[in-house]
Design a protein that fits this description.
The protein is mainly alpha-helical. Helix content is 83%, strand content 0%. Helix 3 (24-46) packs antiparallel against helix 4 (56-87). It contains 5 helices and no strands. It has helices at 2-6, 9-18, 24-46, 56-87, 92-132.
Amino acid sequence: MKFIKAIDWELFKRCSQSDKEVPIENKLLKVLEEAGELASIWLAYINSDNMSKSSFKQLQKGKDQIMEEALDVLLVITDIILNLKQELHLNDDEIATLFNKKIEKWVYKIKMNQLLNQELKKWLDAIKERNDGK
């Protein structure tokens, strides 16, 4: 993810510091708003098969808008994390540890879902064989 390394994090931190007077609860509402906008534009984009040719240019602009909305969510969430870090007196290592634990939990869920899907397929195949044999 080269784009993460290319971000001007120092500028971001300065912006976050400058915006410090905005309460975290307001920023939480803001991230909900941004996530809603992202969901709305994504749903419009994936349902664009029925678009007329005149709407095709809108679709091309939509790709940029989708990414802009996703980045808005990332900006607000990252700002919230920086604010919480300070509010909860956490350091970077503690946050990284928590983040990595969340990734490990995600990996576990993916593996469990894969195993469950394999078992479900075996079970459904066995039922189909029984029904075909009757």
